Amino acid sequence: MDRTEENRQEYKELQRSYSYRVKREVSKAKQKAYDELYTRLDTREGEKDLYRLARQRDRDGKDVQQVRVIKDRDGRVLTSEESVQRRWKEYFEELMNEENEREKRVEGVNSVEQKVDKIRKDEVRKALKRMKSGKAVGPDDIPVEIWKCLGEAAVEFLTSLFNRVLESERMPEEWRSSVLVPIFKNKGDVQSCSNYRGIKLMSHIMKLWERVVEARLRKVVEVCEQQYGFMARKSTTDAIFALRILMKYRDGQRELHCVFVDLEKAYGRVPREELWYCMRKSGVAEKYVRVVQDMYERSRTMVRCAVGQTEEFNVEVGLHQGSALSPFLFAIVMDQLSEEVRQESPWTMMFTDDIVICSESREQVEENLER
C-alpha cells in the first residue's frame, strides 16, 4: 500500500470515529438540555419560559390558511379577497424575479455535442423508488402513489413519455405550472408577507422527469470534493470534521485565517444564463442543457392563500423551488463559480451556499473574497 492510499484509509478511519463521537455528543447535549429545561420549569423563573413556550405554540398554528387579512407594502391592512390575493401575487412576483447585481457578464464557452442514449425502464424504476409518498400534489392533483400503484404499466408509459420529451426537448405545458403556498416563519408580524416563505408544489410527473435527468447529470459531472451539500454520502458532519482538522493545524502555532460566507438568497437568484454557462463548462452534453432550458422556459406559478388562488405569474430568475433537480444544478453553479478561489485556497469548503475560505494569509483570504 502506498503512502497516499495509507493516508486515505487513515482519514476514513478518523472520519468514522469522529462521526460516531459527534452523534454521541449531540445526543448527550440534547438530553442535558431537556433535563435542564424540565428542572427550570419547576421553578418560579420557569413560569416565564412556560408562558413563552405556550405563546410559541399558539403562533405555530397561525398559518396562511387561517390568516385571511394581510398588510400592503405600506403597512395598511387589506381585508377584501381581491386585494389580499393581489398583494400575495405582488409580493412573490417581485421576490421570485429579483436578480442580484453583477459586475461581469457570462462569457462564451464551447458546447459538448454528443449522442445521448434513450431513457431505459430501469432509470424510471429508480426514479419512482426515490419519490417519497404522502407529499402534497401540484396543480394536476396527481400524486406519485398512482404511478407506484400502476407498477410496470406506469414504468412503460413513463419511459415512452420521457423519451418523447428527450427527443423533442419539449415537455408538456402543464408541467410548467406550479402552486406556491406561503408558510409562516414563526417570527414577526403574521400579517406581513415578508414573514412567510413560499413552498412551491410541482407536478409529481415533472419531478419524476427531473429525477431521471438528475441521475444522468450526476454520472457526467464531477463536483469538487470541497462541496458537502447535496452530495451522496456527505453531510455537515464531514464538513465539521474537515474543519476540525484545519483547527488542529492552527494549534501547531501556525497562522490560519477563516472567513465564513453566507450567500443570501443565492438559490433563488441564480441568473439563468449563468446556469447554462456553468453546465456547459462542466462538460454537460448540449442535449441536456437544452432539456433543462426547456424546464425553465415559460415557468409560472400562482399563490394559494386563505382567500383562494391568485392569477399566475412568470418566474424568470433563479432555480425552481421544490425541484428534484435544482439542488444538483446549484452544486454545479457553485463548483464553477468557486473554481478560482479553490485554486488559491485549496482548504475552501462549501455546504450548499455556505462557504468557508481558509488560508495561512489574511491578505490571501481578503483577495479571494473579492474574486
From TrEMBL:
Gene3D superfamilies from the UniProt entry: 3.30.70.270
Q: Which residues form the Reverse transcriptase domain?
A: 164-371
Which Pfam family, just one, is annotated for this protein?
RVT_1
Instruction: Report the EC number(s), separated by commas if there are several.
Output: 3.1.26.4
**What is a GO molecular function of this protein?**
RNA-DNA hybrid ribonuclease activity
| Coiled-coil region list | none
UniProt-listed InterPro entries: DNA/RNA_pol_sf, Rev_trsase/Diguanyl_cyclase, RT_dom
Q: Which PANTHER family match?
A: REVERSE TRANSCRIPTASES (PTHR19446)
What family, per the record?
Belongs to the beta type-B retroviral polymerase family. HERV class-II K(HML-2) pol subfamily.
Q: Which protein, by its recorded name, is this? A: ribonuclease H
Q: Which source organism does the UniProt entry give?
A: Hemibagrus guttatus
